[in-house]
């Protein structure tokens, strides 16, 4: 299943892109409206994109009364990303949601200062607040993301979303001052791919939970590698800002990359990187 990564697609302004996905994931919604951080809050670097949006969103009430009804008209399965600053914030939002595909708990935004409670505590109270599928979105910045994955699995999460951005900084070469008004931002794009592969690999081995893999996916090969590490679904993030055709392109490339390896069902590749069978490479060997 191909999704967008939270915050990387506005389905109400680009519905035709959302309809090309198997599900649309909203920007993270917090209980109260947020303006987000001061500008500049986006910076291009030679290594990826930095953003310090700061969870700008209309807040839960407006989201539920204005945005959600319009999103439902798209007729695309909806994943609602939920954020907050204490466990009860998350639980209240979960309790207010019904008739959506899944809830993604953003437990890993690097662009807000307020300290959140531990991931497992938040999942525990959310589990009590809803029967909807709960995906815990984790950060690879944690020194042992697999331990966090096990803790949220024990707390009742139904799945994992991996990975969020990593905190980074870029300086203006003329002034040597940080480019972003906030100083730091979340690094995303191709540079994240090896980090995402390692996190998905570790969490697949640590839990039996389905995983939405993301981080630097720009090609079908990237998606295939995330699936091989254990992702059941793949999400497109930063690539959507530069290539609105990425959903079809990545899907086609993924199918072709799998075919080239002789794979009939993509599901057969899930977790392939963990198995020590003979290599999938079926290219004919040319005699020297
Ligand atoms: C501009 C921007 C805004 C984002 N906003 C959110 C957000 O609101 N909630 C969230 O969980 N992740 C957010 N993310 C992180 C992405 O969902 C994704 O985890 C990350 O960008 C890695 O994927 P990528 O390298 O394909 O972009 C945002 C990323 C970007 C670039």
Question: What can be said about this structure in brief?
Answer:
This protein has helices spanning 15-18, 60-72, 87-96, 119-129, 145-154, 193-206, 220-229, 239-242, 246-260; strands spanning 2-4, 24-25, 42-45, 48-51, 78-82, 102-106, 134-137, 159-162, 166-169, 184-188, 211-213, 233-236. The protein has 288 residues and is α/β, with parallel strands linked by helices. The radius of gyration is 19 Å and the shape is globular.
Topology:
Layout (H helix, E strand, L loop, with lengths): L1 E3 L10 H4 L5 E2 L16 E4 L2 E4 L8 H13 L5 E5 L4 H10 L5 E5 L12 H11 L4 E4 L7 H10 L4 E4 L3 E4 L14 E5 L4 H14 L4 E3 L6 H10 L3 E4 L2 H4 L3 H15 L28
Parallel strand pairs: 1-12, 2-5, 5-6, 6-7, 7-8, 8-11, 11-12
Antiparallel strand pairs: 3-4, 4-10, 9-10
Helix pairs in contact: 3-4, 4-5, 5-6, 6-7, 7-9
Bound molecules: flavin mononucleotide.
Give a description of the structure.
The chain is of the alpha/beta class and 288 residues long. It has a single domain, classed as TIM Barrel. Helices cover 32% and strands 16% of the residues. It has 9 helices and 12 strands. It has an 8-stranded parallel beta sheet with strand order 1-12-11-8-7-6-5-2. A 4-stranded antiparallel beta sheet has the order 3-4-10-9, with no helix packed on it. Helix 3 runs parallel beside helix 4, helix 5 crosses helix 6 (193-206) and helix 6 runs parallel beside helix 7. The longest helix is centred in the last third of the chain and has 15 residues, at 246-260. The protein is globular. Bound molecules: flavin mononucleotide. Flavin mononucleotide binds at residues 5-8, 27-28, 49, 51, 53, 55, 81, 106, 109, 137, 164-165, 188-189, 192, 214-217, 237-238.
């Amino acid at each position: 299943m191909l999704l967008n990564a939270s915050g990387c697609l506005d389905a109400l302004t680009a519905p035709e892109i959302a309809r090309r996905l198997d599900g649309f994931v909203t920007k993270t919604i917090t209980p109260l409206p947020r303006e987000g951080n001061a500008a500049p809050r986006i910076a291009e670097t030679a290594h990826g994109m930095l953003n310090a949006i700061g969870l700008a969103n209309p807040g839960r009430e407006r989201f539920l009364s204005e945005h959600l009804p319009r999103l439902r008209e798209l007729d695309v399965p909806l994943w609602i990303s939920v954020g907050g600053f204490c466990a009860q914030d998350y639980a209240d939002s979960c309790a207010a949601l019904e008739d959506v595909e899944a809830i993604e708990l953003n437990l890993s935004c690097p662009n807000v200062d307020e300290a959140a409670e531990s991931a497992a505590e938040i999942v525990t109270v959310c589990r009590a607040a809803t029967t909807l599928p709960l995906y815990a979105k984790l950060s690879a910045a944690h020194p042992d993301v697999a331990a966090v994955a096990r803790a949220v699995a024990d707390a009742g999460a139904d799945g994992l979303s991996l990975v969020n951005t990593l905190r980074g900084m870029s300086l203006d070469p003329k002034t040597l001052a940080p480019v972003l008004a906030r100083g730091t931002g979340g690094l995303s794009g191709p540079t994240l791919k090896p980090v995402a592969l390692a996190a998905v690999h570790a969490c697949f081995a640590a839990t039996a939970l389905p995983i939405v893999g993301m981080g630097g996916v720009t090609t079908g090969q990237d998606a295939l590698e995330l699936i091989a590490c254990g992702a059941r679904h793949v999400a497109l993030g930063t690539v959507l800002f530069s290539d609105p055709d990425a959903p079809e392109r990545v899907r086609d490339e993924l199918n072709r990359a799998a075919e080239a390896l002789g794979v009939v069902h993509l599901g057969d590749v899930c977790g392939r990187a963990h198995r020590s069978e003979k290599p999938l490479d079926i290219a004919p060997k040319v005699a020297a």
